[in-house]
Write the structure tokens for this entry.
Amino acid sequence: MKTIYKRPEVLTDAITTYCGGCGHGIVNKLIAELVDEMELREKGILVWPIGCSVYADKYYKMDAICALHGRAPALATGIKRCLPDKFVMVYQGDGDMVSEGMAEIMHAAVRAENFSVIFINNAIYGMTGGQMAPTTLLGQVTSTSPYGRTVPAAGYPVNMAEIMANMPGVCYSERVTVNTPQRITATKKALKKAFELQFENKGLSFVEVLSPCPTGWGQKPMDAMKWVDEKLIPIYPLGVFKSPEEVSAK
Amino acid sequence: MGDKVFMQGNVALAESAIRAGCKYFFGYPITPSSEVPEYYARRAEEEGLVFVQGETETAVFNMIAGAAATGNRVMTATSGPGFSLGQEAMSFMAAAGLPAVVVEVMRPGPADGEILAAQGDYFQAVKGGGHGDYNTLVLAPCSVQEMCELIQESFELAEKYRNPVILLSDALLAKMRENVELPGRKEQNCDLSWALTGCAGRKHNVMTTCGDGSAQWEKYNLDLQEKFAKIKANEERWENYQTEDADIILVAYGSMARVAIGAMKLAREAGLKVGLVRPISLWPFPVKAFEGLGDKTFLVTELSAGQMVEDVKLTVPHKENVHFYGRLGGIVPTPKEIFEQIKKLGVK
């Protein structure tokens, strides 16, 4: 019988700690599929963040390190500069990257570090219990913006994929989401492109994934999927903001 | 051994680190340590080194953690304000078992402070400036020659225990030029089966400092404590000068030890029996250096308001016999100034 689909080999038997309806689990599985398909398991190092994916090192049979909060791009810089021929993937959430670690991601982009960064944007702090993030929408209620985020108190949401596209050291920047099967397929394609570019030494490749957080948003999983369409995408539009073709055309 | 040269402390240290096989340097400029990154940058091409100037010391200390995780010899050099920013990663590296070497060139704090010699970062280096229960080896040279030898040894100790090592310098040692015989080339020779290199042909390696429940994390901590106990038992380093017949014993390290030796000579010439205990390892503190000296009077001299003096008091049986003299702000006392303090103790 022909095998059409099987559990990715790189995955361990560990059960993830993600909530039902969360986007992390989907992205984690896409990464596993790509590691298998691209044969990256034995030549890769995964750099995990502090946040909901803090235990992700347990899910893959791959060399991995869990960075301090916000510092994954700096830690990955140390790894990649020592092992320039290896595959290095950085995975960060929005609190981790855009708040605690804004300097580290910006300067990894400034230095055109040759690694791939996957950015999970769910517009909230998940692990610490639903606090406001720099990516939280205006008016969005969180435990630290109980009456909704306002500009005088907390300023504006941050569009990372667009910001990264403006950095000369970034060769690829795309925003995707995982709230429909088609979009999951598109996300896999984006991740694959980011991983492939790493071996061309053109600089940092960046994929932002809008990810539902039913627990943090106080919604049912299906409603959270809809909320991505209704609220997140108008502020965080999907699309390719920089492609390597543009880079080489310059 | 290698070449005899007349060289600045920071430069001689950097050259010795390169000769120790430290090919990776991540740094951020800060007085009085900047000649170290400058030297690495200058020598990068001919020696095949990797030099990265990071955006902050916060990032730099995480970069050396990443480089150390690949099993390569790696170093940074900084001074107080930068060392403070590096503390979260010091805690991380101690927890994750990462053998990076950190050169801390002390200048007077607190905060921005001044840029001359000081020893006010003793607590931060020795007691663990970051969060949680951890220790790092701390080595304190008192000459450019000793700095060259200790920096090479720092890499070996870091790898032996898989723990960060701090080489505690100060602005005087760093900026001073001395005759020095540069140590020769050293090869890395240690087990690297734990390193992150891609798991070809072996089980995958995972490094995480995120606990998985209190029971697991207590066990993890107890294992760390066991390692620290081993370091404590094996790695005390010190030098004692004329302590056997002494009535008064000076205790000083780093640049201050050189002043103390001058003061000791003045006192001996005046007929006072004065000796010196010079700690070389500050953590572990050289408890054994004080064996058999229990009844003596001690004068601890530091370029601080009194930090190492606490460890001396914890070590000797009669803490009422421990006296202190320190200067602050970057002022280094003269041997005569210390001699005057010795006379005040009134011991015949």
User: Anything to note?
Assistant: The radius of gyration of chain B is 20 Å. Chain B is about 40% helix and 20% strand. The interface with chain A takes residues 24, 26, 50, 52, 54-56, 58-60, 62-70, 72, 74, 88-89, 92, 96, 196-201, 204-210, 212 of chain B (CB under 8 Å).
